[in-house]
Amino acid sequence: MYLALLKEILSIVNHENYLNGNNIVEKIQERIKKKDPSTYAEWEKKNFDINYKFSGDDYFGKKELTLLHLACLYNQENVVKALLAVEGIGVNLEDGSGKTPLYIALDKGHHKIVRALLKAGADPLLRGRCNKNLAEIFTKKAIGKAVDLGAHIFIIASCVAAIVVTYAYFFGVSLSVGAMAGIAVAAAVLTGLVAGGIIYEVLKPCDELKEAIAKKISKLSQNSAVDDSKPDCSREKILEQAYCYH
Predict the structure, then answer these.
(1) Based on CB atoms within 10 Å of each CB, which residue in 14, 108, 114, 235 is the most buried?
(2) Into which CATH architecture does domain 3-119 fall?
(3) Max CA distance (Å), the chain
(4) Rounded distance, CA 64 to CA 172, Å?
(5) Which stretches are ANK repeats (predicted)?
């Protein structure tokens, strides 16, 4: 099944009225059965598991994603909220590439979906297949883009310096000088260079994500204090591990 078809199906369902946890699966079933009977049959064999990974093709190859991953990817907010109300939904489940719904929504800049996922219990400190959490992944991506842009760093750094503070606030941590430079340049990479100046749009702070990270760290710290045999889960230790690049 092509991902474009799944995107079309979810887009149609997203605009239907009164979506909720009791009818969302049935509505998606009906559309898939009509558009792609073979995919419907495969899903039926799995008893229409809400966490079933649909195998789809796009321009980059085959991918395996659950309905929640797909809805987050394509910014289908109403579908996401209805799916999150379904019993047994895997809010922290990884797709075939090791990405959680929260990672996908954050990467795409779908802020309302990020908030809905966090409210439903998405773990911002969960380490994926690459053994990195969200803060580490996005900081490292920023540094990579900085390296790619290299020669232009001094030209554009002043235009995006304020964005560094935004990202530091977003993750609720203090970043190294190298990471800050990388983030600043990465923000500029997302911009369009036009006559007369630089137009840019970057991921804005999300209070819910910052609070979720703080709560998660606090919970881990409390658990560690109760049982001395557990690893050091202090805020300082966790942040030290999260931002250690080797």
Answers:
(1) 114
(2) Alpha Horseshoe (1.25)
(3) 60
(4) 32
(5) 97-129
What is the number of residues in the chain?
246
pLDDT score, position 129: 63
Contacts 24+ apart (CB under 8 A), 14-21: 14/71, 14/76, 14/77, 14/78, 14/79, 15/78, 16/78, 19/78, 19/79, 19/81, 19/82, 20/82, 20/85, 21/82, 21/83, 21/84, 21/85, 21/86, 21/87
Sign of torsion over alpha carbons 238, 189, 202, 163? positive
List per-block mean pLDDT (blocks of 10 residues) for the chain, which spans 246 residues.
88 96 97 95 96 82 91 97 97 91 88 90 76 64 53 44 45 47 49 36 49 68 58 45 40
Residues paired with 147 in a beta bridge: none
Residue limits of CATH 1.25.40.20 in the chain: 3-119
Distance (Å, whole) CA 14 – CA 238: 38
Taking the mean position of all CA atoms in its chain, how far away is CA 156? Answer: 27
